[in-house]
Amino acid sequence: MKYWKGIEELDHSPEFVKNAFAEFPDFLPVKEGRAGHTDDASVAPRRDFLKLMGFSVAAATLAACETPVHKAIPYLNKPEEVDPTISNFYASTYFTGSDYNAVLVKTREGRPIKLEGNPESPVTRGGLSARAQAAVLNLYDGARLRQFAIKDKPADFDQVDRAVRAGLANTTGKIALVSPTIISPSTKRAIAALANRYRNFEHITYDVNSASGLLQANSGVLPAYDFSRANVIVGLGADFLGTWISPVEYSRQYVTNRKINTDRRTMSRHFQFETALSLTGSNADVRVPVKPSEMGAITLALYNAATGGGSPVGLSAVAQKQVAQAAKELQANRGASLVVSGSNDPAVQTVVAALNQALGNVGTTLSLSAPSFVRQGDDVRMNQFVDELKSGAVSTVIFYHANPVYNHPRGEEIQAALAKVTLSISLNDRLDETGVLCQYQAPDHHWLESWNDYEPRQGALSLAQPAITPLFKTRQAQESFLRWAGSNENYYEFLRAGWRTVLGGDDFQTAWDKAVHDGVANGSALTTTAFSVAPMSLADATARLSSGAKAGGIEAVLYEKVGIGQGGIEANNPFLQELPDPISKATWGNYVAVPRKMAVEQKWSQGDVLKVTANGKSIEVPVLVQPGQADGTVSIALGYGRTRAGKVGDAVGANAFVLAQSTPSGTVYTTTVTLEKTGAVNPIAQTQTHHTIMDRHEVVQENTLAKYRENPKEVTEYERIATPEGLEKPNKVSLWQDYQYNDHHWGMAVDLNSCIGCGSCVIGCQAENNVAVVGKQQVINRREMHWMRIDRYYSSDHHEDEFETQGKLKTYGTMEDPSDNPQVIFQPLMCQHCNHAPCETVCPVLATTHSSEGLNQMTYNRCVGTRYCANNCPYKVRRFNWFSYYSNEKFEAVNGHMFTDLGRMVLNPDVTVRARGVMEKCSLCVQRIQLGKLEAKKQKRRPKDGEIVTACAQSCPTEAILFGDMRDPSSRLSQLLRREDGERAFHVLDSLNVQPNITYLTKIRNGVAEFFPSEENA
Predict the structure, then answer these.
(1) Residue 225 — φ and ψ, nearest 5°?
(2) Phi then psi for 82, rounded to 5 degrees?
(3) Angle of helix 477-484 relative to helix 491-503, nearest 10 degrees?
(4) In contact, 351 and 303? CB cutoff 8 Å
(5) Per-residue model confidence (pLDDT) at position 505
């Protein structure tokens, strides 16, 4: 098996070979006239010798500089609940119209600094998405509107209220409120109060990544899925682990049936048919790349084969074989299987719904009686609204968290028609592409400043409470609705009044206090709404799919990224812009992902800018050669190309929403495109080949379920020597003196079977530890600062001597190209906290040392920046501060939250902001360890297992990361290591004998060729 991180490593390109042997490579400026020009050249000719020495001297004397004196102002009357240096946690809810997370808000001295998952939630169960992790940064976004305005001129609340009420009262045409999905019962009641006050009022809901076809197929009901009860899962273009419907909820369910041990040797099997390599497809046991135009035929073939025993026809040989296999296993697991589709075609979704019904999955792996509410958008009704807006039938329009000028396929038409309306109001938090065209701006509070309620799934309620006093002169949108409806009621009291019915009982206050404290409650206040279009019959759906969708030329699929998502407020979040995409590992912008065969044929190199044209509209994006992309197709991420997001998000990438199609049956995210090379070059800031394993085979390990069942002790490779007793680990001679840990010995285990590569841990670590954002050019320069990374490995059975050179890329002639459909494995990598740490022996100033509890420590004010430790680290997990990212004006646009007093409010005061010229790395959240030990000491006891959790482990939605004390024999970590020792537990680069305190568990795959009896998985 050969592992490779990217096309460069697979092909051994000259640039890759050059950088592979350079720990800190030089970077020439980009040639004049090319995109991505930088003045940050690191080449040091002899004339710069004195400058270089000056930097070295400055770095060496940095620790001797006096710290500026900042005077503190004491409280005159200290709030009872606030104690300096002590964190408070408040339960709340994050929902932006698509991504739902129940959260705990960590505050320090009254300011939110970190979000954690709420373990009390029956939906997200303590998990947190990368977007939710980074959402605390949006609170301190300087691009937020700071007060109400009339035609861009500041105004107070009363001025706007009087003008809006008069405008609404004098409206002669329709009044339209446009919003994304709303799952707040109280918000809907506030909107209803406004609707009852004025005639011809209509609330129009649209979702940017629409599920309108799924809703139509199920009569307006969004099924609640349970992947934990499915032995066989078939995904048809649904990225349910990444962006589809409720990924945090689905990820926890999915991994439940993927965790194995000697007592549980069964796994679910996952088939995935898709065009672009998605996060879900990368985790599938069987992945089949297909064109978008083939998805309807595959859906119909799967239905026929699973329900009638018919053979799939009209498909490629590979697709036909896998459809037949999937259908066979679906039949063998009736009532314990699940088929999901990400298509917005009602015909496809109708057939999928009928297939689940026929397999007996309704009531087991999916529920229609207790549905989900997180998608309610009606594409057909939204199209009617645009037509009415253009015709002048709509005279008043209110935009609530909606930006259709940017993110709807008919955005240009909406922009032109807004000039015709009598009254236009934006409740959005910033002057975005739609809000800037409105006459009145009434910005909403940030959700961390607001009271609200939510019902993501019927019967599961959650609350949001303010964790900080509003920073600006904004007002909660729901209160604006009430004011414009003629009510002076406070929204908090309005909310409580609604909950009196939900909570019931005689003692409402006690029940209310418990609900606020827990953040969640049982009960229901939402109902499914009538859909504008009647469901399609199965006969009509099958007839439509039987006719076949014939697409010519190159087919494109538009998809949503795990980090940036739909490009709303997330676009101006630097944490998310710099989060490497789980698959491409690209940051700061989108691109057109193409299969290598197409790149070779067209003579495109990575970074070449192409003009992508569809339906008379075009965008320009760079090429990225993506393994696993279906032949004859390309893919482009939505959510980029913003023009009014803020300093961070503006002019990053191109707006792919213009390529989507708005059809009579709904929005379509696939289309036929033409590609034309422009001659320009725009380098892509990728991270996946910044470090290489140099063909070492002890880095990541995987095996098959069949071999695990046969003998669990042979699925992991260890260095062994022959003894009379058999093969045993050798006694290794070492230069290091062994440590004795008498009190605590902290360690971590990472289950590669549970890690799906979502990146939530990366953002959790960044937010907890004040990790700097460096920007696109510095990522290109291999200077990203993330303390932990998720290495994504492709695997294949080919060897580098089997290819032929053809231009800058390689071709395999008549052989199968290993990049066509490689297997993928994810490995979170942070400082391994070695007991025999190579970094500690080479530091000339003892800046990196070993603690009595097994931690590899960094003393920042000792570090003089020699970088010897990074050079000697075999894992390449140390980061060097090239610049003062929090004070250097070059980084203000990407790291602006560290520049202003407002932005610095998000910084964790328990972790120092590192200075220029020092090394930094993962500390296993030593501040959390110390806090846990002190709390236990005050109670005169040892810390209990689970009390101390690192930020990465806390945020992981699949519980892939386990942290604990290895000296505590009853800790979950100790028990896991005892159980997995000699079976799946291994250390990365174990032969080096650096003895890491981070243990990995071998990934087990459940491939089709293996024995899979349904009764063992029942």
Answers:
(1) -95, 150
(2) -110, 120
(3) 100
(4) yes
(5) 73
- 3-state secondary structure labels for all residues of 877-933: CCEECCCCCCCCHHHCCCCHHHCCCCHHHHCCCCCCCCCCCCEECCCCCHHHHHHHH
| Nearest alpha carbon to residue 880 among 772, 780, 768, 790 | 772
pLDDT value of residue 718: 83
Rounded to the nearest 10°, the torsion over CA 505, 506, 509, 511 is -30
In this prediction, the residues of the chain whose per-residue pLDDT falls under 70 are 1-5, 7-68, 70, 72, 309-313, 548-551, 690-697, 720-733, 797-816, 896, 1008-1018
Alpha carbon dihedral 4, 7, 13, 15, in 10-degree steps, equals: -90
Structure-token pair, residue 536 = 């399609």
Q: Which two tokens stand for residue 616?
A: 């008379």
Provide the CA 402 distance to its chain's centre, in angstroms. 21
| CA nearest neighbour of 254 among 270, 275, 272 | 270
Encoded amino acid at 939, one letter: Q
Longest dimension (CA), the chain: 96
Could you tell me the two tokens for 190? 């506030």
Q: What are the pLDDT digits (tens) for 786-831?
A: 999 999 998 876 544 444 444 444 444 444 677 788 899 999 999 9
Residue by residue, DSSP assigns 209-253 as S--HHHHHHTTT-EEEE-GGG-SEEEEES--TTTTSS-HHHHHHH
Q: Per residue in 861-919, pLDDT tens?
A: 899 989 999 999 999 999 998 888 887 778 877 776 777 888 889 999 999 998 888 99
Measured between alpha carbons, how far apart are the two ends of the chain, in Å? 33
DSSP SS3 for 408? coil
Collapsed DSSP state (helix, strand, coil) of residue 260: coil
738 C-beta neighbours (distance < 10 Å), count: 8
Token readout for 642 is 């913003």
Q: Which conformational region is residue 656 in: left (phi greater than 0), alpha (psi within -120 to 50 degrees), or beta? A: alpha
- Give all strands (DSSP E) within 547-698, no chain letters: 554-559, 586-587, 592-594, 608-614, 617-625, 633-637, 661-663, 666-668, 670-681, 685-686
400: region left, alpha or beta (phi > 0 left; psi from -120 to 50 alpha): beta
DSSP code string of 838-871 = HHHHH-TT--EEE-TTS-EEE-GGG-----HHHH
Residues in the chain: 1018
Q: Where are the beta strands (DSSP E) in 645-735?
A: 661-663, 666-668, 670-681, 685-686, 702-704, 721-723, 726-728
d(CA 968, CA 745): 8
Q: Is 396 helix (H, G, I), strand (E, B) or coil?
A: strand
Token match 């320090």: residue? 108
Instruction: Tell me the two tokens of residue 357.
Output: 């019904």
> What is d(CA 147, CA 472) in angstroms, rounded to the nearest whole number?
7
- What is the residue-wise DSSP string for 739-802? P--SS--EEEEEETTT-----HHHHHHHHHTTPPP--HHHHHTT----SSEEEEEEEES--GGG
What would the two tokens of residue 183 be?
């799952």
Plot region of 870 (φ>0 → left; ψ -120 to 50 → alpha; else → beta):
alpha
CA 9 to each of CA 16, 20, 24, 180, 819: distance values in angstroms, whole numbers, following the listed order: 7, 9, 18, 43, 12
Q: Do the beta carbons of residue 475 and residue 531 sit within 8 Å?
A: no
The residues with which 286 forms a beta bridge, in sequence order, are 271
| 3-state DSSP assignment of residue 6 | coil
Round to whole Å and give the CA distance between 916 and 913: 10
For residues 298 and 237, the answer to whether their CB atoms sit within 8 Å is: no
